[in-house]
From TrEMBL:
<dbReference type="InterPro" id="IPR000897">
    <property type="entry name" value="SRP54_GTPase_dom"/>
</dbReference>
<keyword id="KW-0675">Receptor</keyword>
<keyword id="KW-0472">Membrane</keyword>
<dbReference type="Pfam" id="PF02881">
    <property type="entry name" value="SRP54_N"/>
</dbReference>
<dbReference type="InterPro" id="IPR004390">
    <property type="entry name" value="SR_rcpt_FtsY"/>
</dbReference>
<dbReference type="InterPro" id="IPR042101">
    <property type="entry name" value="SRP54_N_sf"/>
</dbReference>
<keyword id="KW-0547">Nucleotide-binding</keyword>
<feature type="binding site">
    <location>
        <begin position="284"/>
        <end position="288"/>
    </location>
    <ligand>
        <name>GTP</name>
    </ligand>
</feature>
<dbReference type="Pfam" id="PF00448">
    <property type="entry name" value="SRP54"/>
</dbReference>
<comment type="function">
    <text>Involved in targeting and insertion of nascent membrane proteins into the cytoplasmic membrane. Acts as a receptor for the complex formed by the signal recognition particle (SRP) and the ribosome-nascent chain (RNC).</text>
</comment>
<dbReference type="InterPro" id="IPR003593">
    <property type="entry name" value="AAA+_ATPase"/>
</dbReference>
<feature type="binding site">
    <location>
        <begin position="202"/>
        <end position="209"/>
    </location>
    <ligand>
        <name>GTP</name>
    </ligand>
</feature>
<protein>
    <recommendedName>
        <fullName>Signal recognition particle receptor FtsY</fullName>
        <ecNumber>3.6.5.4</ecNumber>
    </recommendedName>
</protein>
<feature type="domain" description="SRP54-type proteins GTP-binding">
    <location>
        <begin position="369"/>
        <end position="382"/>
    </location>
</feature>
<dbReference type="InterPro" id="IPR027417">
    <property type="entry name" value="P-loop_NTPase"/>
</dbReference>
<keyword id="KW-1003">Cell membrane</keyword>
<dbReference type="InterPro" id="IPR036225">
    <property type="entry name" value="SRP/SRP_N"/>
</dbReference>
């Protein structure tokens, strides 16, 4: 099996996943329902029409709307069930696929430009390659590493053909995720038999509150009792925003007034967690990097309060960074890593950027695991980071070109 086939298999499974676009699934669903309606002598047109304005309408939403319809009992439910079952496994693949579209396109473009005038693998080619990789936001160190490794490989295997050089580059990029000896656990450290507490840090506007809201919704849907703590007391807006996300997700929020002591919010939240038996506590903190000492002290104080009640907590300190800021995200991550014990990264707004290569830089230069990725603004658009899916989403077109 080819190198890229292995990745494809890991992402898509043995069988080729049906890549039917959601619109087509919906259309099929509508047609099936119409047929059943005709058999039943019902006119369904107006009830099954998908609202044009709802661009991102989910199959679940459509299904919900259909379940309200009268008289269509068993047969429609069966169709609906089928669609749900088929949709779920590829939903994540599609989200990665869509979320990484811009990055994939730009990466492909850099590679195409690089190889447009390819003649041979000489010094000039390696310089151009380094430039192309840096432009694709994989980071300076990563670009140099790939270039060095490629030079060795070229000598070792006498790689000359354009196609083989291209394949080797992608192979090297993918290998960054597969290095032995570097432990990377992309799973969130969720406790199964005791409460889980996670702190979220990151500068303003990166998507901290949104990510907390999305994660809260996910755990709530799994039947967990979730509590949020608005410990970013620096800005009144941040508190209000968390309250709004709490409402959206249907979970409780502990809040104080703006300007209060964040540690006092955490104290109240921990008490509430203990007394009312919450499963998960997500703490929104203020991430003011301009004052590192204060930030460190503030976080340490919060941790001490948490540890007093739950000695193994916090179970995660997640740094939220905005992928659209590219290299700035990397710099922020480096600074936070030096300031506090970050256990993982939440990389937001991947859908809005062509700088998806930043994941490779974070992986190669920081050795901090990316644990969650934001792939859109909807409450369901937060995904567990899956390296295979990421790599496939980023290099899919190139893999298909080179691996046949
Ligand atoms: N496209 C896209 N937008 C996102 C994503 N995550 C967050 N956003 C948007 O980013 C903006 C900022 O998000 P917030 O959650 O308010 O950021 P924050 O870090 O909490 O910022 P402060 O509240 O100012 O500290 C909002 O408009 C979000 O909708 C994502 O994954 N994709």
């Amino acid at each position: 099996m080819g190198f890229f086939d292995k990745i494809k298999k890991a992402v898509l499974g043995e069988k080729k996943v049906d890549e039917t676009p959601k619109e087509e699934i919906v259309e099929e669903l509508e047609q099936s329902i119409e047929e059943i309606d005709k058999e039943d002598g019902l006119e369904t047109k107006e009830t099954v029409v998908v609202e044009e304005s709802k661009e991102d309408v989910t199959v679940e939403e459509i299904i919900d709307s259909k379940q309200e319809e009268p008289k269509l009992e068993q047969p429609k439910e069966e169709i609906v069930k089928e669609v749900v079952v088929e949709e779920k496994p590829q939903d994540t693949v599609q989200k990665y696929d869509k979320g990484l579209e811009k990055s994939r396109r730009s990466f492909g473009q850099y590679m195409n430009e690089l190889f447009a005038n390819f003649r041979m693998v000489d010094d000039e080619f390696f310089e151009d390659l380094e430039e192309a990789l840096i432009s694709a936001d994989v980071g300076f160190e990563t670009a140099m590493r790939i270039s060095d490794e490629l030079q060795e490989e070229v000598k070792l295997k006498n790689v000359k053909k354009k196609k083989d050089v291209q394949a080797t580059i992608i192979e090297k990029l993918v290998e960054i995720y597969e290095e032995e000896g570097i432990e990377e656990n992309n799973e969130l450290n969720i406790q199964t038999d005791s409460p889980t507490i996670m702190l979220f840090v990151g500068v303003n506007g990166v998507g901290k509150t949104t990510s907390i809201g999305k994660l809260a919704k996910r755990y709530k849907d799994q039947g967990k009792k979730v509590l949020l703590a608005a410990a970013d007391t620096f800005r009144a807006g941040a508190i209000d925003q968390l309250v709004v996300w709490g409402e959206r997700a249907g979970v409780d929020v502990v809040r104080h007034n703006a300007g209060g002591d964040p540690a006092a919010v955490v104290y109240d939240a921990v008490e509430k967690m203990k007394n009312e038996h919450y499963d998960i506590l997500l703490v929104d903190t203020a991430g003011r990097l301009q004052n590192k000492v204060n930030l460190m002290k503030e976080l340490e104080k919060m941790k001490r309060i948490i540890e007093r009640e739950y000695p193994s907590a916090p179970h995660e300190v997640l740094l939220v960074v905005d992928a659209t800021t590219g290299q700035n995200a990397l710099i922020q991550a480096k600074e936070f890593k030096n300031t506090t014990d970050v256990t993982g990264i939440v990389l937001t707004k991947l859908d809005g950027t062509a700088k998806g290569g930043i994941v490779l830089a974070i992986r190669n230069e920081l050795h901090l695991p990316v644990k969650l990725v934001g792939l859109g603004e909807k409450i369901t658009d937060l995904e567990a980071f899956n390296p295979n899916q990421f790599v496939y989403g980023l290099f899919k077109d190139l893999m298909e070109d080179y691996d046949g």
